[in-house]
Amino acid sequence: MENRTKVTQFILLGFSNDPQLQMLLFLVFLIVYLVTLLANGVIILVVRADSHLYTPMYFFLFHLAFVDICYSSAVVPKMLVNFLSGHKTITANGCLAQMFFIFLPAVTEVFILSAMAYDRYAAICVPLRYVETMSKRTCVLLVSGSWTIGFTDALLNTALSLRLHFCGPHHIHHFSCELPPLLHLSCTETTTNEVVLFTSVVILGSSSFLFTLISYIYIISTILRMRSAEGRRKAFSTCSSHLMVVGLLYLTAFFQYTKPRSISSVALDEMVSIQYSILTPMLNPIIYSLKNKKVKTAIGKMLGKFMFLKYC
User: Fold this and answer.
1) How many domains does the chain have?
2) Could you read off the pLDDT of 95-149 as tens digits, one per residue?
């Protein structure tokens, strides 16, 4: 039998090793992470505190904000530690754990966005049956189903990774333990992992994308048939934020996990990963806050109450 030294820890190479650049990157990503926590935290607080937001649309927005906090927290804290550390190491078990907690919110977010598309379809295309269609039970089932699919996919890909052996090199050319760069380091067969990863991305990603696309085909068709220009404007306004969020996530995530190896590079992979795992969780609540009058009003009320209590 061939002697192999089992790798028990990896080195996350991430970005440049220049100390000055790393300090600058630390400050940049620290600010991004704090904004992500603050912005999504505000969304969670206002949805819980304002009774005017006790509707299906904001129920899904509440869970989207929570998922974004989980997603960013699975990646950024370890990255910040590595910027200040000279070793940048992560144990093999820690790497698999991080991979699991990247998969879980990523897949869950995709299906919550699909649920939000269905909610907009029900509100615009079948408004007279909206309350019946988007009942509390239906909303809970949609969110529970999203988390269940995310957990199952994360567990499957992580469990399959347990069978891999790593015997060097142990340098991961990435800032986090995502599965594709980890597979490149395996000294055992990875075909099964690659097939399962590609299949899950295609099946889960395509199904949620097609569901969202079909919903918006009906939505746009209904809006275009509206006689009132004001009605069309309001209908488009309720969908614009969701469309921007969907575009940010789907385009980058699909590209990352389905692109051929021939066009892959470390710099490109890192830039795409930064977009969907770090920047998108920060931008989502900002987009919804800027484009949604009810959210802005609720935030204004919450700030007003805070200032009142502070100076009383």
Assistant:
1) 1
2) 999 999 999 999 999 999 999 999 999 998 998 999 999 999 999 999 999 999 9
Residue 229: phi and psi, rounded to 5, are -65, -35
Residue type, 35: V
In a domain, 239, yes or no: yes
d(CA 55, CA 42): 17
Amino acid at 222: T
Provide the residue type at 174 as one letter. H
Could you tell me if 72 and 33 are in contact, meaning their C-beta atoms sit under 8 angstroms apart? yes
Answer whether residue 108 is part of any domain.
yes
Question: Which of 16-20, 222-226, 291-295, 299-303 has the largest mean confidence?
Answer: 222-226
Dihedral (CA of 14, 282, 268, 181) sign: positive
In a domain, 4, yes or no: no
Look up the domain containing 212 and give its range: 9-311
Q: pLDDT averaged over the chain?
A: 83
CB 107 within 8 A of CB 73: no
Residues 290, 250, 276, 17, CA torsion sign: negative
Judge contact between 255 and 264, C-beta under 8 A. no
Answer whether residue 2 is part of any domain. no
Q: Which residues contact 207 (CB under 8 A, 6 or more apart)?
A: none
pTM attached to this predicted model = 0.86
DSSP at 262: G
Q: Provide the CATH number for the domain around residue 201.
A: 1.20.1070.10
- The model's pLDDT over 257-278, given as tens digits with 9 standing for 90+, comes to 666 666 566 677 777 778 878 8
Q: What is the SS3 assignment for 283?
A: helix
Report whether pLDDT(5) > 80. Answer: no
pLDDT score recorded for residue 238 = 74
